[in-house]
Design a protein that fits this description.
The chain has one domain. The longest helix has 20 residues, at 2-21. It has 112 residues and is an all-alpha fold. The chain is built from 7 helices and no strands. This is Hemophore-related protein. It comes from Mycolicibacterium gadium.
């Protein structure tokens, strides 16, 4: 059960990032998850971008080994799995406050 929760959390983090990368994640019924699903950014690039785009969200992320593991899992997955993980995140209201900074991180991570 705990492993399932960690997996969902990881998927949620990745999906949150994906939905944020969509641009209109909250406002749109079907956000474009492409930037997150198809990212070529590395974990360090995404973390640097998240810290720059949303220092508060970055600080919370940096304190959470579960969120860090989730992002690593997301990035290690193929695009089909990333898409599935992103959908899981969209279904988790707890991640709504992180959507903006995560979206920006996926949109700008190539600059880091």
């Amino acid at each position: 059960m705990i492993k399932m929760t960690l997996t969902r959390l990881g998927a949620a983090v990745g999906g949150l990032a994906l939905s944020l990368a969509a641009g209109a994640g909250v406002a749109s019924a079907a956000p474009d998850l492409g930037p997150a699903v198809n990212t070529t950014c590395s974990y360090p690039q995404l973390v640097s971008a998240l810290n720059a785009q949303g220092p508060e969200a970055g600080a919370q992320f940096n304190k959470s080994p579960m969120l860090q593991a989730g992002l690593r899992q997301f990035l290690a997955s193929d695009p089909a799995k990333r898409q599935q993980m992103a959908q899981n995140v969209l279904a988790a209201p707890a991640f709504a406050p992180f959507m903006g900074p995560v979206e920006q991180a996926f949109l700008t991570c190539n600059n880091f």
